[in-house]
Amino acid sequence: MVTSDTDAGRGDRAVLRLIDANLDRAREGLRVLEEWARFGLLRGDLVTRTKDMRQRLGRCHRDAYKQARDAAGDPATGMTHPVQAERRRPDQVVAANAARVQEALRVLEEFGRSQDPGLAAEAAAIRYRLYDLELELLQATPAAPDAAASAATGLARRQLLQRCHLYLVTSPAPDLPARVEAALQAGVRLVQYRAKSGSDAAAAPGDDLGRLEQALALRELCVRHGALFLVNDRIDLALAVDADGVHLGQGDLPPAVARRLLGPHRLIGRSTHALTQLRQAEADGCDYAGVGPVQATPTKPGRQPVGLAYVREASSTARIPWFAIGGITAEAVPELRRAGAERVAVVRAITAAADAGAASRDLLSALGQVH
Fold first, then answer.
1. Which residues lie below 8 Å from residue 6, measured CB to CB, with a gap of 6+?
2. What average pLDDT does the chain have?
3. 235 shares its domain with 298
4. Positive or negative, the Cα torsion across 180, 184, 187, 193?
5. How many CB atoms lie within 10 A of CB 334?
6. Which of 35, 92, 234, 257 is deepest in the core (most CB within 10 A)?
7. Which residue, among 227, 263, 47, has the nearest Cα to 149 in the 3D structure?
8. Closest listed residue to residue 243, CA positions, set 273, 274, 222, 269
9. Which of 354, 332, 359, 365 is nearest to 183 (CA)?
């Protein structure tokens, strides 16, 4: 059988319409899941993951697909099924919409392979992540009225995180509280307590009691200045001092375990050294990522620097806030900004500076942030 150019053209247009319809269907279903996570569960972490999937599909929704749309000529427009009226509970709505999205993604995979391989690959990746997300949405307990305050706190934390461009990671120092306070007065609004050996190992607390007391003092300073306070590694210590969250390295507890212990309203950050790790951090529902080390640093002895190449990759692909880290100084910031970095994390640039306040102001100025 010989196929004419006209028949082939009709076939191509039909595929474009089919892709458009299923992108709409998948994005609509994800929005239903996102709204339940937001208003029914008060789970900012699940909202973030669902929204990420929806926005990723949105970036794949090319104008060519939308221009092929023909709702008037669709014989199934307005068609319903009696089973839709049977969805009376939220879990039934969640399950039905998750299935709707999964089915639409499968269609996009099958028909996108020849038309748009990038879309097909993205649809496959999202479909597999949605299986886990659906289970979490169905297992999550609807928020009680008194949970609204906790949800509001979690939202405020994430909003402040978005506005933070300079991240101070502490290193042991004899006058650490004074240095942190000077940085806060200069405009730093994100502090991580890291009690591991650093520029002055002798100044590090010798036991957990000492670390608890130091963390409490730093948290109080952050509260006073309206800054976020995170704890490195130690989930138990973060809970003990009511920190805003934790920062996890690649060898620490998995984010899913940390989330189960911390709850949905605290922040979780993740160190990443390659694009695959950044993508995994996003898939795990982390709130932000560290990208580095950009240069060799004694804070991470033996860790090979990633240079600016990974910074550029993060700039073009990251869907969560990220901070370039590793041997960064105010003088290095312009080059980092040219590579796409909007946020940086520093250790010695502030904690080892002769004037922590002046060093913080110089860094904020280099980042284009005026306090």
1. none
2. 89
3. yes
4. positive
5. 11
6. 234
7. 263
8. 222
9. 359
C-alpha to C-alpha distance for 158 and 266, rounded to whole angstroms: 9
pLDDT of residue 178 exceeding 80, the answer is: yes
The residue behind tokens 């009690």 is 195
Are 334 and 308 contacting, i.e. CB atoms less than 8 angstroms apart?
A: no
Phi-psi region of 73 (alpha: psi -120 to 50; beta: other; left: phi over 0): alpha
Burial class (CB within 10 angstroms; exposed 0-12, middle 13-18, buried 19+) of 159:
exposed
Beta bridge partners of 289: 270, 322
Residue 311 has pLDDT above 80, yes or no: yes
How far apart CA 343 and CA 365 sit, in angstroms, is: 12
> Is residue 146 pLDDT above 70, yes or no?
no
What is the dihedral angle through the alpha carbons of 300, 306, 311, 312, rounded to the nearest 10 degrees? 180
CATH code of 36's domain: 1.20.1260
Q: Which domain holds residue 257?
A: 151-366
Looking at the fold, whether 136 and 170 belong to one and the same domain comes out as no
Does 23 share its domain with 101?
yes
Residue 13 lies in a domain: yes
Domain boundary among 120, 143, 166: 143
Whether residue 301 sits in one domain with residue 244 = yes
